[in-house]
Amino acid sequence: MACNPAAISRAKADQELRVRTVHGADSTRTVLTFKGAAVDQESGSKPEHETRVQDTEAAHAILRGLGHVPVIAFEKRCRNYEFEAYGRRMLATLVRVPEIDGTFLEVETLVDEADLAAALEDVRAVLADLGLGPEDLTRETCTGAVAAQRR
């Protein structure tokens, strides 16, 4: 699956508003996503809200009408794996971005803010089960790495 964060229009205050087109094996969909500021400094974990968009051109027109302008666009190739660990539904995503070296692993779970600390412990336990320790982790985002590569 490839997804193109085609219009990340805000990178202010550690937040992003983006329109992504996700190309799957059987379908293509567009998603509007808001990523809030990091709620955990060590991991860089951010709250995320997203919804499907039926009309991509209308979504772009609405955002432009509200004063948002594209800041960066790039291709991100993802392979998602859903699983359960430590009593939680988890999503592991293997990520490749053609502009930057390496393959990255993102592990996520959906939680209420009150359960954030325990959820982060469970995500770290999953990473440890995979043989990944703190020295293997980064707070750098794909967006930040692409922007740095282009400078």
> What is the fold-level CATH name, i.e. the topology?
Hypothetical Protein Pfu-838710-001
Distance between the termini: 27 Å
Approximately how much beta-strand content do the residues carry? 25-35%
| Percentage of residues assigned to helices | 10-25%
Mean pLDDT: 89
The counted number of beta strands is 7
Strand order of the largest sheet: 4-3-2-1-5-6-7
Protein name: CYTH domain-containing protein
Domain CYTH: 1-151
Pfam family, one: CYTH
Organism: Streptomyces camelliae
Descriptive report:
The protein is of the alpha+beta class and 151 residues long. The chain has one domain: Hypothetical Protein Pfu-838710-001 (Beta Barrel). Helices cover 22% and strands 34% of the residues. The protein has helices spanning 56-65, 116-129, 142-150, and strands spanning 2-5, 16-23, 28-35, 48-53, 76-85, 88-96, 103-108. A seven-stranded antiparallel sheet has the order 4-3-2-1-5-6-7, covered by helices on one side. A hairpin with a 6-residue loop joins strand 6 (88-96) and strand 7 (103-108). It is globular and about 45 Å long. It starts with a strand and ends with a helix. 9% of the residues are buried. The mean pLDDT is 89. InterPro entries: Adenylyl_cyclase_CyaB (IPR008173), CYTH-like_dom_sf (IPR033469), CYTH_domain (IPR023577). Residues 1-151 form the CYTH domain. It comes from Streptomyces camelliae. This is CYTH domain-containing protein. Pfam families: CYTH.
